[in-house]
Design brief:
Elements lengths: L5 E5 L5 H9 L3 E6 L23 H6 L3 E5 L5 H11 L4 E5 L18 E6 L14 H8 L19 H24 L4 E5 H6 L3 H8 L11 E4 L2 E4 L1 E4 L2 E5 L4 H17 L5 H4 L6 H6 L5 H16 L3 H11 L3 E3 L3 H6 L1 H5 L3 E5 L5 E5 L23 H9 L3 H9 L4
Parallel strand pairs: 1-2, 1-4, 2-3, 4-5, 5-6
Antiparallel strand pairs: 7-8, 9-10, 10-11, 12-13
């Protein structure tokens, strides 16, 4: 699909997903690391919980299908190598780091080069030189403000979410740059703000106060109807399930079936199951229904969920036409038959000599199949190969650069 595109990725946590997506689509992606290794090699989790340069599972997952070289970009020789390599590639992807600057700013690129820079904040904005981590960027996005219990600090994501969002946006920006260059022959300078990328996952939150409404408040995973907290996540026998209670002509009918199921299981009074949930809100405003009825429904569903497994709730959802689904942990995802049937998993090799099943395809195409053609590169694995083939360096010159610390 992208077999005519060549990409240099100056490796950073924010760039890894972008390079991986482009490599999956067939681009020749060469990842550039400092001689001590990319920061991505130090991201947990580690194989067997033992840290090491070649043991980061995050590095393994986000660097399949790439080749790897080491270049010390702070050195004169390293900058010269980078400049010469860039003339042979279409795209350069980089991260600006925590203070808004890039080690490539002093290098002059070809007018045809597509250069995509991921920065914590907009590079022309007032926060462009702020020091930042995924934690602070995610906090600045506003998304964590709506998560967690009311009496505790916000909950943050268990994975570096801003990093991943920014990487995906960088891949899209790069593809847009390639399309534009195909049209007019001119390279592009693209900038991706990790904060804006992360904020897109909470876009509704950003719009609410901007539209003149009151600021949104944390709901503790529940909506409040007539003073009754209606949760969306319920504890079940072996974990948690997402169960939606709704009203009106469509969602009310699903709630009706949900209440009937709970009543048949002896978890609530049958009178509640016979309540008209389609007209509940209007009946409540007219004084024909009571908030207490809704509380009884919620309590009954809590009791019902605790008596059922995630699989039983999923089966009932399909059979009865409910908006209910299990909250999956990673084992559930790995065992899920639908994902297996759709071919999203494949057998992959780790550099430590182990083979595992891993989700390797972010999309399925009718005329192209994403495959794992090579494992994530070991540190400096392809340096000699690429410097010799691309730049015509001799083995003696490569050795001299290594001794000097430039590679």
């Amino acid at each position: 699909m992208l077999d005519d595109a060549r990409v240099l990725e100056v490796s950073a946590p924010e760039t890894m997903l972008a390079g991986r997506m482009l490599a999956d689509l067939g681009a020749d992606v060469v990842v550039i690391e400092p001689p001590a290794g990319s920061p991505g090699r130090r991201l947990a989790p580690f194989l067997g919980d033992i840290p090491g340069i070649e043991r980061s599972l995050t590095w393994q997952a986000l660097n399949y299908n790439k080749r790897g070289v080491t270049i010390e970009l702070s050195s004169v020789d390293g900058k010269a190598l980078m400049r010469d390599l860039a003339t042979r590639f279409d795209v350069v992807i980089e991260a600006a780091g925590g203070v808004g600057r890039s080690p490539l700013d002093s290098i002059e690129f070809s007018p045809r080069t597509i250069r995509c820079t991921v920065a914590p904040f907009v590079r022309t904005g007032p926060k462009r030189e702020y020091a930042a981590t995924d934690f602070t960027v995610m906090a600045a996005s506003g998304a964590p403000a709506m998560t967690g219990d009311l009496d505790r600090p916000p909950l943050f994501f268990p994975v570096p979410q801003a990093m991943m969002e920014a990487g995906a946006d960088a891949a899209i920006a790069t593809l847009a740059g390639l399309i534009a260059r195909d049209r007019d022959g001119v390279g592009q300078r693209a900038g991706v703000s990790a904060r804006i990328a992360a904020m897109m996952s909470a876009f509704g939150l950003a719009l609410v106060p901007g539209s003149g409404n009151a600021d949104s408040k944390r709901t503790q995973g529940a909506m409040v109807v007539a003073g009754v907290q209606v949760p969306s996540v319920y504890e079940c026998a072996d974990g948690f399930a997402l169960i939606t209670i709704g009203f009106g002509p469509v969602f009310g009918q699903m709630t009706q079936r949900l209440a009937k199921w709970a009543a048949e299981e002896g978890r609530m009074d049958r009178r509640i199951a016979e309540t008209s949930w389609s007209s509940f809100v209007s009946d409540l405003m007219a004084g024909k229904a009571s908030p207490q009825d809704l509380q009884v429904l919620v309590d009954g569903l809590k009791s019902l969920a605790r008596s059922k497994s995630k699989a039983e709730i999923a089966e009932a959802s399909r059979r009865l036409g409910l908006l209910a689904a299990p909250v999956m942990n990673m084992k559930d995802v790995a065992d899920y038959e639908q994902y297996r049937e759709r071919g999203l998993f494949a057998r992959v090799s780790l550099n430590a000599g182990r083979e595992i099943d891993a989700p390797v395809r972010f999309a399925q195409f009718s005329n192209y199949s994403i495959e794992i053609k090579r494992p994530a590169p070991k540190l400096s694995e392809h340096s000699a190969e690429i410097f010799e083939a691309e730049l015509g360096l001799s083995k003696a010159e490569i050795q001299a650069l290594f001794v000097a610390g430039a590679i």
